[in-house]
Design goal:
Layout lengths: L17 E5 L2 H9 L3 E6 L25 H11 L22 E8 L9 E8 L4 E9 L9 H16 L5 E2 L2 E2 L1
Antiparallel strand pairs: 1-3, 2-5, 3-4, 4-5, 6-7
Length: 175
């Protein structure tokens, strides 16, 4: 089922009190140097949620785009992926699942009974499909399952990030 049609997923309009910021590559490298491992709960691959996100302006995905669209959009907004092993132009022969991945810090300023104040999410491809994961830094690579509401919110945010236009001003011109 498309994330926008899932009965427990938030609507785009409910996500107004959220700030998403890209994690700098230096922070990722420092965490890894300290022995931390980034573990992820891939929302798209969770059987209990049975949800996908179509790269389409239509909820029925009648006109869906391919995975290149989100990668292009993320590159426009945030530059090359922050993970050294996924940097543009690197040898990709060893990649079996993900060809791109971005790490973001999400800050929620709304009702904290429903969502945490802050969490990490990755936006990436998974077997050539658009995906998003709830992420955590841990001492070792142990699997975890994020709360369903948090997982669905993360996936909806990721989809909104690549579908919704972002306004900016450059040299006094609105883009």
């Amino acid at each position: 089922m498309d994330i926008r049609n899932h009965p427990e997923a938030p609507d785009f309009s409910e996500l107004q009190d959220i700030v998403i910021e890209s994690i700098p590559r230096a922070e990722i490298e420092a965490r890894r140097a300290d022995g931390d491992v980034l573990v992820e709960d891939n929302v798209r691959e969770r059987d209990d949620l049975n949800v996908v996100a179509y790269i389409s302006g239509e909820r029925d995905a009648s006109q869906s785009d391919n995975i290149g669209i989100p990668y292009y959009r993320l590159t426009q907004l945030f530059g090359t992926p922050q993970f050294p092993e996924l940097q543009a132009g690197e040898d990709i022969s060893g990649r079996t699942d993900a060809t791109f991945k971005y790490l973001f810090r999400v800050t929620y300023k709304g009702n904290h009974d429903e969502l945490p104040t802050e969490w990490l999410m990755t936006v990436h491809d998974s077997h050539v499909r658009f995906a998003a994961s709830v992420a955590e830094w841990r001492d070792e690579a142990t699997a975890f399952t994020a709360d369903s509401k948090l997982a669905l919110t993360t996936y909806m945010l990721a989809l909104q990030l690549i579908l919704e236009p972002v306004e900016c001003v450059y040299e006094e011109m609105l883009f």
